[in-house]
Amino acid sequence: MGLSKFYIFSLLSLFFYSVEIIAQDLQLDSLKSIINENKKDTINVNALLDISNILSKSDTLESKNYALKAIDLAEELDYKKGQAYGYKNLGLLLYAKGELNKELIDYWEKSLELFKKIDFKNGISNLQGNLGSVYQTKGDDPTALAYFLNSLRLAEEINEPKRIGTAYINIGSVYANEKATYEQAIESFNKAKKICENIDYKEGIAYAAVNIAELYLKTNNPKAALQVLNEYMTFFDKADADKANGLIMIGRAYEDMGEPNIAEKKYMEAITLATENDAKMEASKAYIQLGNMYNKKNELSKSLDKYEKALELTEITNVLPDKKKIYEGLANIYAKLGNYENAFDFQKQFSAVMDTIRSDDYEHTLGNLRFQYDIENKEKEIQLLNTENKVKEIQLEKVAISKKYFYAVSVLLFAIAFGALLQYRFVKKSNRRLADEQNKTESILLNILPAETAEELKLHGSVKAREFKQITVLFTDFKAFSTVAELIPADKLVKSVDYYFKKFDEIVEKYGLEKIKTIGDAYMCAGGLPTENETNAMDAYNAAIEILQFVNNTQKNPPKNVHPFEIRIGLNSGSVVAGVVGTKKFQYDIWGNTVNIAARMESSSIPGKINVSENTYNLLKDKIDFTYRGIITVKNSKKLKMYFVGKEMNENEIIS
After folding, report:
1. CA-CA distance, 300 to 344, in Å (whole number)?
2. Which of 84, 86, 220, 429 is 20 to 30 A from 388 in CA distance terms?
């Protein structure tokens, strides 16, 4: 999940009132004089909250005491908003130290419940975002996304731009955890950045930009990431925000660029800054990065020391994604040292954390939430398009009427027949233009959606999700694509990929398959949808054979300026859920374990081979020759059998 967890931004800017740092001492004296009057009223509660706020950065214990006093007085006065902000402040004190424990969640759930009782929607949206940040940092993306979506809906209802921008950053951070949804992540971050720029909210602009930089790191573009980070880190300085995680990301960029000494310096600066601010979560992340870097350089004693320091901090923060990285690193180091007992023990702990983070219903729940969010955005876009179309229709009517009167006056001296002829030509021309525009629109829609789905969208304004009991998914991927991409010119790379994918499109259409999407060099399609059939497995098999033959022929005799790639192909059959997602552009997509297994079949194949699952094998074994490969183990220790298409086999192709 990377460092993006820090850049989940939930308006954790401490708290109820804005305070100028240079006036803090004067304000403290003024606020304490209000408290000393011993009046039991809401003014006193707010003064206690302000003092708690001011002291939060210098004396957390005293800050907590004032927050507790504010809660007690607010409870006595039945001042629920004051109670809610008091519990929120208590939670923020723990969050700032990286202590994401049950106590923190209890404080914020109490705050949320109090805001709900008084129907204070701004506070409700804020706390939903805060709780979502905690759950995502702990590795529970489905729960986090549910909170973020609720926060966005309320923020839009009350038209609070700062909180809307914040919600889009948070939602984007969930999408950024999966390669398949990077496009939606970028879209969310850009929305947030634009909203924050419109209200000159510099800290929000910086958080959105830095999340974009995180995606650059994930897609192996450290130079672009470093450029963004250097540009926007000054925004954090001005806003007095914690820079520790930004320094970690800068270190990662330098490490990816092959400059480990600079990276090490940035990681150490992050540790120093985090330690000074008692930011345990940020310190542990910096130690993990150092441990990883030393491990790659085989400086095992240094790496072991950093992992152990990180592990000590995560015992307090209980951030499971960080624990997962530490256990994985320690298992690797002890294996290198020959201490297989410790290596096995940490590997077991790594597996246990993975199972905790991603339970059986993780993908299902997260997929449903994403689908719901994308459908809501699509409905908003359709409503906007309908409104724009109505306005255009009215404008066209006005123009038509104006022209009609103009011609009527102009041709008053001419014969009625001549005037009628002019009007007829005008109407005919307008109808032709409208028909041309409608044909263009329908053509574009059919290019991105199946015909059946496009028709449903036109008729009803939406597309219902459908479950298909039996389809076959086909995945392809080029061997060593990332390496080749660095070695050949960009125009040759694009021309090569375009050359292959155009042919793949022809083959897919030939066998009645539906192209789903491409991600980088990966190509995904499926048979048996949107119209169900019983031949989907054979259709996908025939398409895979022809794709493989085409790639092999191209490798033997490549056209000019086309790089000859080798290809891996994987097939799996089973059930999926299909629907339309997207906001600015629609996309027909499918979800389910069937898709995940098909991807595993492709990644477990070898160049020049078609690797199929047991599901597809059972559908085709009476018609096609296969060679059993063996078993691979996937999530939750599930074992999958695999088969190569054809009889030929050598020892290197067997998976034990």
Report:
1. 17
2. 429
CA geometry: angle 163, 164, 168, nearest 5 deg = 115
State the Cα–Cα distance between residues 168 and 155, nearest whole angstrom.
11
| 480 three-class SS | coil
Residue 134 CA to residue 101 CA, distance in Å, equals 9
Q: Which residues contact 320 (CB under 8 A, 6 or more apart)?
A: 138, 139, 353, 356, 357
> Whole-angstrom Cα distance, residue 260 to residue 313?
24
Query: How many beta carbons lie within 10 A of that of residue 622, not counting itself?
Result: 6
- Kindly state the DSSP code that residue 650 receives in the 8-state scheme: -
CA dihedral 342, 344, 346, 350 (to 10 degrees): 170
Q: Each residue of 526-544: pLDDT tens digit?
A: 999 999 999 999 999 999 9
Going by C-alpha positions, the residue among 518, 537, 522 that lies closest to residue 594 is 537
| pTM (predicted TM-score) | 0.50
**Phi/psi at 19 (5° precision):** -135, 130
pLDDT in tens, 243-292: 788 899 899 999 999 999 999 999 999 999 888 888 888 899 999 999 99
Cα 134 to Cα 319: distance, rounded to the nearest angstrom: 9
What confidence tens digit (pLDDT) does each residue in 14-58 have? 333 333 444 466 677 777 777 766 778 888 888 899 888 888 877
Whole-number Cα distances in Å, 112 to 96, 132, 171, 577: 19, 12, 20, 34
Pairing mode, strands 626-633 and 639-645: antiparallel
Question: Residues 587-593: contacts with CB within 8 Å, 24+ apart?
Answer: 587/448, 587/517, 588/448, 588/449, 588/450, 588/453, 588/514, 588/516, 588/530, 589/516, 589/517, 590/471, 590/473, 590/516, 590/526, 590/529, 591/363, 591/367, 591/371, 592/367, 593/363
What does residue 322 show for φ and ψ, rounded to 5 degrees?
-70, -40
- Backbone phi, psi, residue 150, to 5°: -65, -40
Cα radius of gyration (the chain): 30
Distances from the Cα of 129 to the Cα of 85, 123, 322, angstroms: 15, 10, 21
Query: By the 8 A CB rule, do 171 and 148 touch?
Result: yes
Q: At which residue do the structure tokens 């479950």 appear?
A: 467
